[in-house]
Amino acid sequence: TGPTHLAGALGVPMVALYHCRHRSRRFAPVRHPKLRVVEHPRPDNRCDETVPMAEIGVTQVWSAVRELLERAEPVAEA
To answer: What pTM did the predictor assign?
Structure first.
């Protein structure tokens, strides 16, 4: 989770994926307006260290990315 906290401190937009053993409610940066969290779909009571992150669907991640891109501020050209 270190990179998410660095990005959060710098205000960098990001999509963060969290495993069902390490939910965002415990590990995500707080009050980061440009953070989109994607939680693992498996319930906590059916999760252990062997559960793959691949159970998070591409569609769910892409939806979070699109939401950030649609709200992105224009970049000034040099």
So the answer is: 0.83
